[in-house]
Amino acid sequence: MKKYVFLLLVGVLAVISCSENKKVEQKAPIRVETQVVSPGMADDAQTYVGIVEEREATAVSFTSMGVVKRILVKEGQIVGRGQLLAEMDPTTSSNSVEIARASVNQAKDMVKQAEATYNQAKDAYDRLKLLHDNGSLPEVKWIEAETRLAQATSALNTARSGVTSATAAEKIARKGLADTRLYAPVSGVIGKKQLVAGETALPSQAVVNILDISTVKVKVAVPETEIGSINAGTATSIQVDAIGRNYRGGRIEKGVQADALTHTYDIRINVVNRDLKLLPGMVANVRFNSSGSQGLGSKSIPVTSVQKKSDGTLFVWTVDNNNAAHRTRVTIGETQGNYVTVVDGLSIGQRIVTEGYQKLSEGTKVVY
Q: Last residue of a domain, which of 221, 253, 288?
C-alpha cells in the first residue's frame, strides 16, 4: 500500500513539474527583428528625415498685469475653445469694481437731488412767468427766476454726465475683473506652459501655447538639385517609428528661399492627424514616390521575409497585438531591389518578422 502511494505521489510531482516547465517555456519569448508594413517602400523612392510640426501655434496671454493665482491645464492636455486655462489674483480688480459701483450709486443720488432742485426752479419759473407776462412782476424777480432755473438745469446735466462717466468706469472695472480669467481662444493641445502660479504675468506675455495638431506638417530639407521634381501633389509616404504608424502625405508647401550653407529648401507636407497621435518634434521618415515607383496604395516588404511552404504557397510571419507570431499567407508581385510588392494578404501598418523567424512556430510569443 505504501509503495502504491509513493508511486502515485511521484507521478503527481512529475505532472506538476512538466506543467511548470511548459509554463516557463511559454514565458520565454523569442527575440526577433520586425518591420511595419508601409506603402511605397521601393528602393527608387527618395527618402528623407523630417520633423513633425504643429499646423498653428497660438500664444495665450492676459491683457493686464497681475499675479498668477493658478493654471488649470497641463502640457499635452487637449482643450476646447472657451475653456478656462488660468486665473490671476482678482483682489485688486474686485476692489476696483466695488469702488466703481459705489461711485455710480453716488452719482445717481446726485441726479435725484439735482432733479428735485430743477423741479422747484421750474415750478417757480412757470408761476412767475404768468405775472411777468401780465406786467405785474418786477423785472428783478423775473431775472432771479430765470437764473435759478438755468443753474438747476446746468446742475442736472452735470449730475447726469457724472452717472454716465461712473457707469463707464464701472464697465472698465468689470472688464478688468473678467480679464483675470484666461480662456482658450481656439481648440487644440497645450504645448508649453510659460508661467506657473505665483509668478507675475505681464500684458501680452504668453502664459501657455495652444497647438493646432488636427493637421500637422512634416518639415523636410530637400537639396536644390531635387527640389524641382517635387510639386504640391507629389505622392509621399511617411513613417513615424515613435508611434509605429504610417501616413499618406497630403498637399506639399515648398519654400522659396534656400539655406545659404546647406543649399537645401524647406518643404512642409500636410498630414491629417485625426487621432492626434502625431506630436510636434517627432522624427519621421519621408519617401517621395517618383513616377516609376510604387503608388501609395501598394505595400512592400523585404524579400527575405517571404517564406515558402511545402505546397508552394508563400507566407510571412506577422506579429499581433499580443506579440504572438502567426503564419500569414501572401501573394506577391514585382520585386524592386531588396523589396517585393505584396498584392494580397497584408495591410499597411501590420508588423512582420524580418529576422529570427527560423525559430518560430504558430502562436510563439516574441519580443522585438
A: 288
